[in-house]
Amino acid sequence: MKLPWLIVLLATAAACASPADTIDGNWKVRFAGSPGRGPKTVGSILLDVKAEGDTVAGLAHIGVWPGDAPVADGRVNGNHISFNATGHLGSTTGVPTCHFEATINGDEMDLTMTATRNPGGPLGEGMVYGYRGKKEPK
Question: How many Cβ atoms from other residues are within 10 Å of residue 125's Cβ?
Fold first, then answer.
């Protein structure tokens, strides 16, 4: 008879957990596509993000180029986040802005990145790059 109450208690606790509990933290994702098909300067992305209500803020380290970029226009919808980030390292095409879409399941993240402004070099115009990774331990 105690088992049904335990199940109800655990289900209630899971339902009450805020999306921020799942989203907040440091994430490391690596290119998940075929070898040689990804942007050579962005083999991995580090995210330091914090959700507040339906927004997300933080910093994205987008590989060795375009580098560190503040999260802008960040949105939260359940376990899905989206944001833009403009790197700080320029190239012959300028400083790129990338758009990110991520789905979070527990401590795992699936993320896509698309260069939306000043694409070029290793970030091909119109290319969508897929990444997969995990939340880093505190």
Answer: 11
